[in-house]
Specification:
Elements (H helix, E strand, L loop, with lengths): L1 H16 L18 H4 L4 E7 L1 H6 L8 E9 L2 E11 L15 E4 L16 E5 L5 H17 L6 E10 L4 E2 L3 E6 L2 H7 L2 E4 L11 H14 L12 E6 L4 E6 L41 H9 L1 H9 L6 H18 L2 H8 L20
Parallel strand pairs: 1-6
Antiparallel strand pairs: 1-2, 2-3, 3-4, 4-5, 5-8, 6-7, 6-8, 9-10, 10-11
Helix pairs in contact: 4-8
Length: 362
C-alpha cells in the first residue's frame, strides 16, 4: 500500500511540475451550498410550467436554454422559482432512444431566495424515465448505494414531476425522476476543485478512492467509465490533501439497473451489462485491496437493507438485485474467484484495461 501511494504521489508530482500540462481547475466562487435539498429522503413534488413542447423538441447537439417556472411542493408549502432549462445527455437525449430526455436546471441568472430549497444550487440535473419508471428508481438506488461508501459521491433527491405545457394547456401525468447535485457544489462541500484534465493515468488518482470506485463498479456491473477520458467521471482535486479523487455518475447502463437499452462496449466483448469485468489497473499484489474489500463486507447489511426496504421498486427487482449481489460477495469470499476476477487487468489477452472513450451514456 505504501509503495502504491508513493508511486501515485510521484506521478501526481510529475503531472503538476513537468511537461506542457494544463490542469483546468474551476475556481469560480460558488455560493455556500444549502444542504436542505438533499437532506430529506422524502419524495419532492415539482412541476415545470412553460413552453414544454419547445423545450422537449430542442434536442440538437447544442440545445438552447428555455425560461420556465418551477413549482415546488415541500412540507405543505409551495415555492415558485424562475429558471432556465435545457435538454442534456447523449444517448437519452435522442428522440429515437427516449420519448422524454433528461434535463438540466440552471438557476445562475435568476434570483433564488436564501430560504429556498434550491438556494446554493447553481445547476441540477433531472433524470427522467426513458423506458419506464422502474429503471429510474433503480438508478436512483445505485447513487444511494455509493453514498454509503463515501462523501465523494453525488447527492440525489427523488422527485415526482409533472409538465404543465402552457401552449397546449395540458398537464402530464406525474412520474418519478431524481435530481443530481451540481458538480460545483460537490466540489465545494468536499473542499475541492474540479479538474477537467484528460488522458490522466488511473494510477495518479488517490489509490484508496480509486480502489473503492473500481470495486463498486465491479459490484454493480459498471464498465461504462474511464479516468483517461473523464467518461462518466468527475475529477476532484482535494485542496488540503493535494489528491485527485474520481467520482462516478450515470448508472443507467450498469448491470444492477439493467435498462432495456443497456449494452456493453463492443471493445469489452461482453455478452450483456450484467456480466462483470474488473476495470481497475493491474496490481501485482492484491493485498492492497484488502481494506477496500473489508469496507464492502462491513457495508453488506446496509447495501441489502437499502434495496430490500425500498418501497418503490418491485419484488422482481429486489429478488434479482439480491441474487446479483450474492454473486459478487461469493467472489469476495472465495480466494480463487477473487484472485481471478481482480487480477483480470493484468491479463494481456483480456479486456480489463480497455479505455472507454465514450458510449451511450447521458
Amino acid at each position: 500500500m505504501t509503495f502504491i501511494k508513493s508511486a501515485a504521489a510521484c506521478l501526481l508530482f510529475m503531472v503538476f511540475f513537468h511537461g506542457p500540462v494544463s490542469y483546468a481547475y474551476q475556481n469560480e466562487t460558488v455560493p455556500d451550498p444549502s444542504s436542505a435539498l438533499f437532506d430529506s429522503e422524502e419524495t419532492l413534488n415539482i412541476q415545470l410550467e412553460g413552453d414544454i413542447r419547445s423545450l422537449l423538441r430542442d434536442r440538437g447537439e447544442d440545445p438552447d436554454y428555455h425560461i420556465l417556472k418551477l413549482h415546488v411542493q415541500n412540507k405543505g408549502q409551495e415555492e415558485l422559482l424562475e429558471l432556465r432549462v435545457r435538454v442534456r445527455g447523449n444517448f437519452r437525449r435522442l428522440r429515437k432512444n427516449c420519448d422524454t430526455p433528461p434535463l438540466k436546471f440552471n438557476f445562475k441568472k435568476h434570483e433564488v431566495p436564501d430560504h429556498s430549497l434550491f438556494a446554493g444550487q447553481p445547476e441540477l440535473k433531472l433524470v427522467v424515465p426513458c423506458k419506464g419508471e422502474q429503471y429510474v428508481l433503480r438508478e436512483y438506488l445505485t447513487y444511494k448505494l455509493y453514498n454509503l461508501f463515501t462523501d465523494y459521491s453525488f447527492n440525489v433527491r427523488l422527485v415526482r414531476f409533472t409538465f404543465n405545457d402552457t401552449g397546449s394547456k395540458e398537464v402530464s401525468d406525474p412520474q418519478y425522476g431524481f435530481l443530481i447535485e451540481d458538480k460545483e457544489v460537490l466540489a465545494s462541500r468536499n473542499n475541492a476543485s474540479l479538474s477537467e484534465r484528460m488522458n490522466l493515468r488511473p494510477e495518479v488518482v488517490d489509490p484508496e478512492s480509486f480502489y473503492r470506485l473500481s470495486v463498486f463498479a465491479y459490484m454493480i456491473g459498471n464498465t461504462d467509465w474511464s479516468i483517461q477520458y473523464l467518461h462518466n467521471i468527475e475529477m476532484l482535486f482535494l485542496n488540503e490533501d493535494k489528491l485527485l479523487v474520481a467520482v462516478p455518475y450515470d448508472f443507467d447502463l450498469v448491470g444492477l439497473v439493467s435498462s432495456p437499452y443497456a449494452k456493453p462496449s463492443p471493445a469489452l466483448k461482453l455478452r450483456s451489462v450484467r456480466e462483470r469485468v474488473y476495470r481497475g489497473y493491474c496490481l501485482e499484489d492484491l493485498r492492497v485491496l484488502n481494506n477496500t474489500f473489508d469496507q464492502f463486507q462491513k457495508l453488506r447489511p446496509e447495501i441489502y437493507r437499502l434495496i430490500r426496504e425500498d418501497s418503490l421498486t418491485d419484488d422482481r427487482f429486489k429478488d434479482f438485485a439480491s441474487g446479483y449481489l450474492d454473486d459478487f460477495y461469493e467472489i469476495l469470499n472465495d480466494k480463487k474467484k477473487k484472485n481471478r476476477a481482480f487480477s483480470y487487468p493484468c491479463n494481456d489477452y483480456g479486456t480489463g484495461n480497455v479505455v472507454i472513450s465514450g458510449m451511450q451514456g447521458g
